[in-house]
TrEMBL record:
This is UDP-N-acetylmuramyl-tripeptide synthetase. The keyword DNA-binding does not apply. Pathway: Cell wall biogenesis; peptidoglycan biosynthesis. It comes from Kocuria gwangalliensis. The keyword Cytoplasm applies. Residues 1-20 are annotated as: Disordered. It holds the Pfam family Mur_ligase_M. Catalyzes the addition of an amino acid to the nucleotide precursor UDP-N-acetylmuramoyl-L-alanyl-D-glutamate (UMAG) in the biosynthesis of bacterial cell-wall peptidoglycan. It is found in: Cytoplasm.
Length: 552
């Protein structure tokens, strides 16, 4: 994801029109913070919250948070100059504010980040506690969040709801999509967006909740009706350090403070699902948790058969429908739901099952839900850059898979069905982030594809050549151990890699360009380089098809 590019108006410029003004005194009572201010200043009323000085609007409370690089209080004077009327910070921040001679009232808290969301919830009145509150759905997990939120929304729309969305691809809080900079926006944005949606008559919203969001308190003060868990596989170890720590962060979502109910996918080979279901039952009570058992690797035309794992719902039958699947979900008590999705990939069976059961658990009658699934086919919906079919002969797909598990599953999904068909993958690893996954991704590509083309993803401020080499080492080592790949190429820039893949292809092959999905800019050392895998792949295929025509 590219954070450095200016993507135009962002979530913060979209605020509700009727914030609830709070005095500094009231906020001190809410947060338990100490007030450093002249007596009269306690009555200062703030009408907004911001944690980036550059986004300050007149009347805001500036949450000056300690960061990994810099203390937000360093920018207190900037916030004041833009109209901030008060500051929420910690003791170190209060000192910086005093040293800078900024004369705003200061609320001093031991953990201002943890309070920012709750303060924003109050000021933006995001949880009114009456009938005007929308139904809120959260999806967390390493992979599948975006797809599942799109599925949830599509079902809700088919049920007649007006829906909102907060996630990696876009934010939908009205007619015009707001470009998304983060999977889960900062806490003030989350609350302002939820209120704005309510003002605009949106009565149900689904959002992705990343582990960063939980770690950085971005969804504090939000209460969901249903939270869903997809899976937990290696990613983000640069932030969390270990899978156990990563799990603990995700588990925070399944607490009574944050959600009413939970739906947890149990995937074979991923013991974290079982652990999450157990944790959710401890936190929410067993009657508020629904578990769904799926096989890890769902083969074509397989009959999954009832699972004996004790899960509430199991996958009862599964058949291929076009490039997608049709299947039945069966409850222990005999209830059944017939579901289908035209999106390719066995993981989309999992995402679809999760979405359907999240909507069911929000209080929709089973018969109503079944009729909606039958009449509207809501799980056959476009999810930009997720297993997006760009062309046929060769089957050409752009997918967002950018971690080992997602890549392995994406490769399985594009396995050619014609005799002699080969799989060609184009991908790279991002700079800065979890470096341990680079050789692993190289190995997985070599195990699952016949031709591996390693290129750049977002190098960010790292030199891209060594990143490519670390990925290639994994691929070559796997080749030496007999992996499937006959060819491993290292080609940059990415545009050339994509065109090379198409040039090397035969009609019976499959090409998957993985890692960037819907993204339209590549971050090359802070410079936003326009690049859309879907556009490049389309252009390369057009060129291939016209040269084939010329030859015939
Ligand atoms: C690693 C990470 O997530 N860091 C988050 C953390 O940043 P930090 O501690 O480095 O902040 P800092 O740069 O030291 O700045 C300290 C404070 O000064 C403020 N500041 C800074 C400069 C300025 O001019 N004015 C100003 O007010 C900043 O807003 C910040 O509050 O706190 C900041 C807000 O306080 C977040 O914006 C920032 O997320 C950055 C933007 C980020 O890129 N995060 C990514 C990795 C992320 O969250 N990704 C996940 C999804 C990942 C995935 O699934 O792939 C997501 O939810 O998007
Ligand atoms: N349930 C799943 N299990 C494993 N892989 C999946 C699953 N769903 C999708 N994928 C793969 O992961 C990629 C990302 O999917 P999606 O965007 O839905 O997940 P995400 O959790 O939102 O990812 P991110 O947090 O990185 O944005 C897809 O392009 C696909 O390759």
């Amino acid at each position: 994801m590219l954070e450095s590019a200016d993507q135009g108006p962002d979530a913060q410029s979209a605020r509700p029109s009727r914030p609830v003004a709070h005095t500094v005194e009231q906020l001190a009572r809410l947060t338990g913070a100490q007030i450093v201010a002249s007596p009269g200043a306690r009555e200062t009323r703030v009408t907004g919250v911001v944690l980036n000085s550059r986004e300050t609007q007149p009347g805001d409370l500036y949450a000056a948070l300690p960061g990994a690089h810099v203390h937000g209080a360093t920018f207190a004077a900037d916030a004041a100059a833009s109209g901030a009327l008060a500051i929420l910070t910690d003791a170190a921040g209060a000192e910086l504010v005093a040293q800078a001679g900024v004369e705003l009232p200061v609320l001093v808290s031991a953990d201002p980040r943890a309070w920012t969301g709750r303060v924003a919830a109050e000021i933006y009145n995001s949880h009114p506690g009456d009938a005007s509150a929308q139904k809120l759905f959260a999806v967390t997990g390493t992979n599948g969040k975006t797809t599942t939120t799109y599925f949830v929304n599509s079902i809700l729309r088919a049920l007649g709801h007006s829906t909102g969305l907060i996630g990696t691809i876009e934010i939908l809080a009205g007619d015009t999509p707001i470009p998304s900079k983060l999977t889960t926006p900062e806490a003030p944005h989350v609350h302002s967006l939820l209120s704005l949606m309510r003002e605009r008559g949106i009565d149900a919203a689904a959002m992705e909740v990343s582990s960063h969001a939980l770690e950085f308190h971005r969804v504090d003060g939000v209460h969901y009706d249903v939270a869903g868990f997809t899976n937990l596989t290696q990613d983000h170890l640069d932030l969390h350090g270990s899978m156990e720590a990563y799990f603990e962060v995700k588990a925070q979502l399944f607490t009574a403070e944050r959600t009413e109910r939970a739906v947890v996918l149990l995937t074979e080979g991923d013991t974290w699902g079982e652990a999450m279901a157990r944790r959710a039952r401890e936190n929410l009570g067993a009657e508020h948790v629904t578990s769904v058992a799926l096989r890890g690797n769902i083969g074509d035309d397989a009959h999954a058969g009832p699972d004996r794992s004790g899960a509430d719902w199991t996958l009862d039958s599964l058949t291929r429908r076009g490039i997608g699947h049709a299947f039945t979900l069966q409850h222990r008590d005999g209830r059944k739901l017939s579901v289908s999705t035209a999106l390719p990939g066995d993981f989309n069976v999992a995402n679809a099952a999760l979405a359907v059961l999240m909507v069911l658990d929000s209080g929709v009658e089973l018969d109503t839900l079944q009729k909606t699934l039958d009449d509207h086919d809501p799980l056959t919906t476009d999810v930009p850059g997720r297993m997006q079919l760009i062309g046929t002969r060769p089957t050409s797909v752009v997918d967002f898979a950018h971690n080992p598990d997602a890549m392995a599953r994406a490769l399985q999904s594009v396995e050619p069905t014609e005799d002699g068909g080969r799989t060609i993958i184009v991908f790279g690893a991002t700079g800065r982030r979890d470096k341990t996954k680079r050789p692993i991704m190289g190995r997985i590509a070599a195990e699952g594809a016949d031709i591996v083309i390693i290129t750049d993803d977002d190098p960010h401020d790292e030199d891209p050549a060594p990143i490519r080499e670390q990925v290639a080492q994994g691929a070559r080592a796997a080749q030496e151990h007999g992996a499937r790949a006959a060819e491993v190429h290292v080609i940059a820039p990415r545009e050339v890699a994509i065109h090379t893949a198409v040039r090397l292809s035969r009609p019976e092959d499959s090409i998957i360009v993985a890692g960037r999905g819907h993204e339209t800019f590549q971050d090359l050392n802070g410079v936003a380089h326009p690049l859309d895998d879907r556009v490049e792949l389309t252009a390369a295929l057009d060129a291939l098809h016209s040269s084939r025509k010329e030859q015939s």
